[in-house]
């Protein structure tokens, strides 16, 4: 056999130098998009999206990266102005295609209105500890989310008529969560101080007939309010009324609740609630023996491991707070 007919020798693996010289900017866009999809907003805007021109172009032009934006915990890591700017950038890059937005602490009336004016396709909105969102600001913004199917308002300052407002603006709501931190002393004085309030319950009953899941942790509703919800929300399958201590589970109410597949009652454990640590910390800070005895089971279940959800955050370098890192994409 002649040398010309011999098969070519196998290619040698790339050397370390060749590997280091690889041009990551030439990475196929579909593969790069798959990598970006695993990053959160901060990781893209402050890191991957700044690596090179090609990566920056993808981060700025691919709206699929911004369909589900979860900015929970970001308010604890960055300055308010910075995290607001990031949220606006995410909304702009979504180009009207965003379907879910979640945030803690930093959302205010102005930012919520900004989102509602640009994201009519939103189906899921999660707000926690956003005390700068007022009833008026919420009422103005919620009308911009006609396709909303899931609304979570946890430990915010919204109350009263907001339920009716949300129900009328979002006729497709299937999941609604309105969670509050029950004042323990209400348990003793509610019968005498008028601390029962069915305003929110009646708002839900009158405007949310399509609800399938309802969570009202720490609400002040009474048996009458709960009865109204059960009568007017026939599709309800999941109901969570933990820490709703104005509710008295009499025979009539038990009969009404029998059809609910997933039912959590006022005195059931709060250990699986995502934000239980905020409840426990507020109880500990009050300091009365009555309150601590009442919640011994909560204090026992919240361990360091249980709080991992609150501590599992990426460490950011001090330079993150430098507004100049955002470049031209952020107006802060």
Automatic annotation (TrEMBL):
Compositional bias annotation for Pro residues: 1-13
Domain F-box: 21-69
Superkingdom of the source species: Eukaryota
InterPro entries: F-box-like_dom_sf, F-box_dom, Leu-rich_rpt_Cys-con_subtyp, LRR_dom_sf
Record Pfam families: F-box-like
Region spans: Disordered: 1-22
PANTHER family attached to this UniProt entry: F-BOX DOMAIN CONTAINING PROTEIN, EXPRESSED, F-BOX_LRR-REPEAT PROTEIN 21-RELATED
Descriptive protein name: F-box domain-containing protein
